[in-house]
Specification:
heterodimer; A: mainly alpha; B: alpha/beta; Rossmann fold; 6 helices; 9 strands; 26% strand
Chain lengths: 222, 201
């Protein structure tokens, strides 16, 4: 079973590499969305530093939604989803691998890209490490939640529009504690509680989301 | 032996068929016929375990086949009416993800499969360059990758030219000679020697 899972991950990664422009689009969207904040709010360094965690988190959250539409959609439309389900792999494991590939090609690049963007938005040095940590934990949770949303809208006529409506409300706790971690560092409060809560969300999501997403993908193939 | 025992299919609140029973023995081929919308695809998907049965049972060697999905999926190969071909991957890469094993034996198996469907010359071009019929042949090539005992084919020869249909007929004959079973939904005459047919109505 692990052999099939590894092969499937290899497939997902090869497909993502071939469509490298998708990952690039996520990053460009992230940078563009984050640079709208100084334009809209004004370039005052102190103010920018204060809103930087929130701005980065919101931009990252929205950017991570972009590739979700195709996560299952492409496989559903060309008949690959049937073949994936007939590989002898539990649907939950299939969903977990989809989430992992989403994180590798959207979440992880966003975590890296957040560093120059944090510099651009004048985030205090001391808050950078907590922000990055919160992004690592939070983006994994987002990938799992997003995979669940993507599985639920398989075959829906306007799935791409429906997806953010499903995922964004579920993602609010991640956003709240993600920005809280970096915000706490700025005000000198302990960042640990917020990061621990993000870790707890991740633990919950890694168990529940694949089960829900797997069941949804299986139901969609009926 | 595969036994379909008294199964029924419901789509929405519409009964497609009920009390359908037939058996497929080793080396046997069954053609499913019936008008459009009679439930041929649904029946194939039910046998594959993709669609739940409304009633009845699918038995493999006397035991409930769908009770252990992994084991059931390992012994069947399903060719849907979509090709499941990824345009961004090359022809051989498209097959690579459906077969395991060490590199040498895997590559040999892919080469053999491509040879069977006459795509060996195109092995390294992106699948988006293939014509509809060639994509269909690539999907058929996936059947030969695994030693699946049961082939479930949904309109397998759509878009194929006569030479390819004849080659596909030879593939089916070889599969049956090795004790394989075939269930195919079709409107056209399939190149299957002495096959039975089950009519859905």
């Amino acid at each position: 079973m692990m052999v099939i899972a590894a092969r499937l991950l290899g497939r997902e990664m090869r497909l993502s590499f071939r469509h490298g422009a998708d990952s690039l689009a996520v990053l460009l969207f992230f940078v563009l969305a984050a640079s709208l904040f100084p334009l809209g709010i004004g370039p005052e360094p102190a103010l920018l530093g204060k809103i930087a965690p929130g701005a980065i988190w919101i931009a990252a959250l929205l950017a991570a939604l972009l590739p979700l539409d195709r996560l299952f959609g492409a496989d559903y439309e060309d008949g690959s989803l049937d073949q994936l389900l007939l590989q002898g792999l539990p649907p939950a494991l299939l969903a977990l691998i989809k989430a992992l590939s989403h994180w590798l090609f959207a979440g992880l690049p966003l975590v890296v890209m957040a560093m120059p963007v944090a510099l651009m938005l004048n985030l205090p040095r001391s808050a950078l490490a907590p922000l990055e940590l919160s992004l690592v934990l939070g983006s994994m949770t987002l990938s799992l939640l997003g995979t669940t949303g993507a599985a639920l809208v398989i075959g829906a006529r306007r799935g791409g529009v429906l997806l953010p409506l499903l995922v964004l409300p579920l993602a609010t706790p991640v956003l709240i504690f993600g920005t809280a971690a970096a915000g706490a560092a700025q005000t000198g409060v302990a960042t640990r509680p917020a990061l621990l809560l993000l870790g707890a969300f991740l633990c919950l999501a890694v168990i529940l989301c694949p089960l829900a997403a797997g069941a949804a993908a299986k139901a969609a193939a009926e | 032996m595969l036994e379909i025992r008294s199964i029924a299919a419901i789509r929405g609140d519409h009964l497609l068929f009920e009390d359908l029973s037939f058996t497929v023995a080793e080396g046997e081929a069954v053609a499913l016929t019936g008008r459009n919308g009679a439930g041929k695809t649904t029946l194939l998907r039910m046998i594959a375990g993709l669609t739940p049965l409304a009633s009845g049972a699918v038995l493999w060697a006397g035991a409930d086949a769908l009770a252990d999905p992994s084991a059931h999926h390992a012994r069947l190969a399903y060719l849907g009416h979509q090709d499941a071909v990824k345009p961004g991957l090359t022809v051989s890469e498209n097959l690579r993800h459906w077969t395991g094993g060490v590199r040498a034996s895997r590559d040999a198996r892919i080469q053999a499969a491509l040879e069977q469907v006459d795509l060996l010359d195109l092995a390294d071009i992106p699948a988006r360059m293939l014509s509809a019929g060639q994509k269909r042949r690539l999907a058929i090539g996936r059947l030969c990758l695994r030693q699946a005992a049961l082939w479930l084919l949904d309109e397998p020869v759509t878009g194929l030219d006569t030479a390819s249909i004849a080659r596909f007929g030879a593939m089916i004959a070889r599969h049956r000679a090795e004790g394989g079973m075939v269930i195919a939904a079709t409107h056209q005459d399939l190149p299957m020697a002495e096959g039975r047919s089950v009519r859905l109505s």
